[in-house]
Design a protein that fits this description.
By secondary structure, the chain is mostly beta strands. It has three helices and 18 strands. It has helices at about 5-10, 35-45, 225-240; strands spanning about 20, 45-50, 55, 65, 70, 80, 95, 95-105, 110-115, 120-125, 130, 135, 135-140, 145-150, 160, 175-180, 185-195, 215-220.
Amino acid sequence: MRNLLTVCALSVACSSSAFSATIDVYSPRSGELSHEAILEASYGGDFSVTNFDFTGGGEFGGISAWRHDDFLTPVGILDMLGTSRGETADAFWTGSELTATAVARYAGYSQRFGYDAGDGFQLLFDVQGNFTNVTGSATVDLTGNTWTWIRSNNGGSNSFSSDPAANADGLDHMVTYELTGLDRPGRTWLLFWEDIEGPLGANGGQSDRDFNDLAVEVYVVPEPGPLSLLAIGSLIALRRPRR
C-alpha cells in the first residue's frame, strides 16, 4: 500500500510551486466516437467544447465535464472527495467507497479495469460489449488507501497505469474529467484510456492517442459523519412501531 510519504517521494519535488499541463487528445478513427460524442451518448444533450472542457450537456444543459491536470509538480494525490481543479495531477488517487462503471469501448483489445494500491493489480471488472453498448461495474471500499488506476487486457498484458512513470513507454495513457451537474450527491469522474504503446502523434506511430479505447465512470459518495449517522439513527427510531 502506498502512503502519502511514498507518493510524495515519487513526485518531482514536494514544493509549493506548481506546473500543470494537459496532453493533447487527437481525433478518433473513422466510425469511432470522440470524447464529446461519448459524453452525449452517455449523458444526453448537446455538449459544447471550450479548450479542454465540455459544457451544456444533459437534458437541461446543466452537465459539464471539466478536464483535470495530466501533469502537476509536485504530483500529489487526487482526493476524489476533496481535490479541486488545478491542485494535483491524476496519477495517484485516494477516496472512500466508490462505484466504477464501463461507459464505452472502442478497441480491438479486450478491456479490464482495476487498481493497484501497492499490492499489484486488483481487478474490478472485465468489459463486455462494444462502443457505448457495454457492461462492467463494481463497487469497492478503498478508504485509507492510495492507488493508481490500471487498465489491461484479458490476458493481463498490455497493461497501463494512471501513473505515466509506471508505463513501459513513459507516456500518459489516461485522461480525466470531473462531471458536474448530475442529479446525485458525491462526485463523479470519467476516465478515458489509450491502450496501445507508442509515441505522441496525431494518428502517427503505433498509438493514435485518441483516448477512447475505454471510458470508465467512477462515482464516490462521502461517508456519513457522526452527525449524519446520529440523524439516520433518529429516523430509524422514529420509524419503529410502538409496542
